[in-house]
Amino acid sequence: MLNIAASLRPVSPAFAHRNLPRLLLQARESLMARTRPSLREHGLSDQQWRVLRVLGEHGTLETGRVAREATILGPSLTGVLARMERDGLIRRERDPADQRRTVVEATPKGLKMVDRLSTSVEAHYQWLEQSLGKQKLAQLYALLDELIALEQA
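Above: the chain's sequence. Below: its structure in token form.
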């Protein structure tokens, strides 16, 4: 017979800390569970929304920066951008200053979608701020920024 209490104990005593990457992924999924239905109603994947949000915040960008800001690997970004261009959400062209580079910008249709979705996204952040408190949310942002900077150093 299986001893449930024994199965809940860590198998290896080598891990003194909780699994931070897994916790961060679980936090992301919890946050996206509220946003994802709105994205799907507008025919967007998570990745397409990240691209649109980045372009909505920063304007025209070189594709490498879009990949970094949206946290999408280059090969995946190529397919995402192709679908978004086909759907009239973004426009790609050669960088006039450097023909080897490609720049991306949101079309008016894409920017309209950002505006529409930003209402529900911001409402979720308002709820989060009310639930956690302004100070805790600011602290969470600061800690995440610090962790990202530390790991990128």
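The mean pLDDT is 91.
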